[in-house]
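Hi C.,

You asked whether I'd gotten around to modeling the 167-residue construct. I have! Everything is below, sequence then structure, no commentary in between.
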Amino acid sequence: MLIILAFIIIFHIVSAALLFTSTIDNAWWVGEGFSADVWRVCPNNTNCTEIGEGYEGYATMQAVQATMILSTILCCISFLIFLLQLFRLKQGERFVLTSIIQLMSCLCVMIGASIYTDRRQDIHRGNSWLYHPLSEGSYGYSFILAWVAFSFTFVSGLMYLILRKRK
């Protein structure tokens, strides 16, 4: 049982690290000499512009920002609740709240990455959007980490439900 708990703790910490990295780092959309994320656009390596109200699609980017921040916060809260529940609750009642909060984190990261994917695809359908001048590029590693974090938080949430029944 201790090995399972250690594995779950490590898995949860990795999930949180993936969420932090994907939310903060500037590599959601990359190309030759430029990068962009949910916070700023860098047409070259030295000149970065914060995404503000002047950008087309600003409300959409705010939705992505909010869901990614919320997913990171919920993941950290679920880890703290996990630690509290580990020592406070009797067997059979453990980790239900932790699982619910972790699955909410999973849902938030899925919504944020899905919105970003949909808006990014508008460029290729001919619709205008935030990074239109930088349309020639590809998804960066932060975007991929967001989807990996989605799967990690989903699996983690399910593991907490399964672990609830273990003795």
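If it helps when you're writing up: The chain has one domain: 2-26+56-132+146-163.

Thanks,
B.
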